[in-house]
Predict the 3D structure of the following.
Amino acid sequence: MHIPDGFLNIATVATTYAVSAGGVGNAVRIANKKLGEKQVPLMGVLAAFIFAAQMLNFPIAGGTSGHLIGAALAAILLGPWAAVLIMSCVLIAQSLIFQDGGLLALGANIFNMGIIASFSGYYIYRLVTWLLGNDRRGKLAGGAIGAWGSVFLASIVCAIELAVSGASPIGVVLPAMAGFHALIGIGEGLITAAVLSLVLATRADLMQLQRI
Amino acid sequence: MKSKWWLIALVFCLVVAFFAPLASSSPDGLERVAEDVGFMELAQEAPFSLIADYVFPGLENEALATILAGIVGTLILFGIAYALAWLLVSRRRETV
């Protein structure tokens, strides 16, 4: 879902840069207050994993592929503000070094895959674990559903940005983006639940850290 | 001591990067929509390129170039996020 340059108009570029800059600034402030020493290596590992996993495009229906975003996973393990920081590191490096995602579109990409995906994934996870119980089953279900929702909602916000920019009418681009990403989100949900299951089996204490 | 758990996790991430050449080369969801709906031609090339499209430049073997790009990126991201988190933790007392 990395938007290249050219798809967004100047007003959308400026707005998303401003909102994302504010969001990342707030994430830095909150992490500076609450981040603990135990979370430092987890920040590094999650950024590394999300980068590597994002390279693995999996096929979905109709000659289309998708890949993990990872924001929901990061938000479930570390909290949404820490996830915003991790996603920003990944997206900035992808744009500057790997030419994946435009430089002007970086604000929008951080907003969609950083801020929207992290917060939606986190709060859906919280809701599901509250409904089903915070045991292993509830956590895995919450991770899968939260991850699916994070991709779905990020794709809708992305479609709105494209429509506002005049790339395509909202009635065309929104159902198209939401439809493909409803499928891609299934992959996101499966990978997120698999990683959470691995963490629960090997280092369950990492699930007990304070969320940021 | 379990304190070096993250080294094992980092190795796991590097193993994941080794599978990058097996990734689907089909367009992703956004690219597919841009092609179907017809705004793909709006896309602009980046003004510069370092390891563009996750292919390390100057290598004949594309699978190898992809793996190398993946390993370099995975290590860079670990370093950046670890350093950022370490700075945020270690500078806490000074800023209060």
Summary: The radius of gyration of chain A is 16 Å.
